[in-house]
């Protein structure tokens, strides 16, 4: 069996003869076979055993077995005892999840302490095939059909190329005993149905079903790697031009890959792709995605903005997060108001208003439905919503647009866009109020 495992580990670059590896040892058939294989192949290995104190005498039996096995093989054994039930209750998780979290946290800490290159765990081909079938039944994307991967960070799985039957045959040939695998802490009803009922039925159709499913999963891994190249090209931006991904033939899949890190699910992706421009959909993790003229834009959900009163000249610190101001770095965003000699600003972030026509207190607030103004140089009123549409602003930009209103509630400046005509500098102006945002 080692020649098969050796080819697999070389293909996936899992093991190096010069490195130290930590083997997760439960005492069950899979982990015992893994330890024995690596030891016989002259790898430098330590073993790690967790006693979760869940099966009374059986837990102690498993630990004693691992101690005796490692002494006989000349392998250094590290042991940890956990109060798994207390951990599960404290963290409000299942016993199975508690055991998983405890062991993997400890494995990683131990790996760092002893300087091991990786943590070898004994998942085999049948585990991966069962995972594929379970994911298929539950509903999954491409990644769910790729099964268990040979490497996940520092976790290495050298036995994914062999079946449980091959493992048991290997142990029998070597006269090596084992105990019931103590990592099976909680009955997985669905997995047992797949293992004991579904796979035997499928084997009646094709005795090589497990091998074929695993081979298909490996082929899908290759396909996923190709797709990852396309995904990498779009993942660094919060804007996705849909025309850029049409060449790949599947806008939906690549859009999902782009949006999932923001908490959007497959149904939401379909909704936003089918929606008209201007549609916003929100994720459960606090992000909004907007469809805007052939592109998608993501930004944090809009937070409340408290209107700020400006009673007189001075410098005022603006509240709100970066997202309130277009996602830019606004660590020290301020509004400065002061009287100045006459000049006309051409900077969109600076308004110069006729001081005799500006009535304090001023107020900075978000634009509201029905807001209007007479923009400088125009005759008659214009709804701000129409003005922003004319300027081709997105719905995101429109909803966070700020305005400055005077004591009568009249808009004197749509910040960054236009000042009102009635406060514009004229030949009669002697002093201006400079408002810098």
What topology does this entry show?
Layout: H1 2-11, E1 20-24, H2 29-40, E2 44-51, H3 57-73, E3 76-81, H4 84-91, H5 95-114, E4 118-120, H6 125-138, E5 151-152, E6 155-156, H7 164-173, H8 189-205, H9 209-234, E7 239-241, H10 242-245, H11 251-259, H12 266-274, E8 280-282, E9 287-291, E10 295-300, E11 308-310, E12 314-317, E13 334-341, E14 350-354, E15 362-366, E16 372-373, E17 382-383, H13 384-390, H14 395-399, E18 402-405, E19 411-414, E20 418-419, E21 431-436
Parallel strand pairs: 1-2, 1-4, 2-3, 4-6
Antiparallel strand pairs: 5-6, 7-10, 8-9, 9-10, 11-15, 12-13, 13-21, 14-21, 15-18, 16-17, 18-19, 19-20
Helix pairs in contact: 2-7, 4-5, 6-8, 6-9, 11-12
Could you characterize what this model shows?
The longest helix is centred in the middle third of the chain and has 26 residues, at 209-234. The strands form five sheets. The protein has a six-stranded mixed sheet, with helices on both faces. A five-stranded antiparallel sheet has the order 11-15-18-19-20, with no helix packed on it. It has helices at residues 2-11, 29-40, 57-73, 84-91, 95-114, 125-138, 164-173, 189-205, 209-234, 242-245, 251-259, 266-274, 384-390, 395-399, and strands at 20-24, 44-51, 76-81, 118-120, 151-152, 155-156, 239-241, 280-282, 287-291, 295-300, 308-310, 314-317, 334-341, 350-354, 362-366, 372-373, 382-383, 402-405, 411-414, 418-419, 431-436. It is of the alpha+beta class and 437 residues long. The protein has 14 helices and 21 strands.
Brief digest:
This protein has 14 helices and 21 strands.
Question: What features would you highlight for this structure?
Answer:
437 residues, 14 helices, alpha+beta
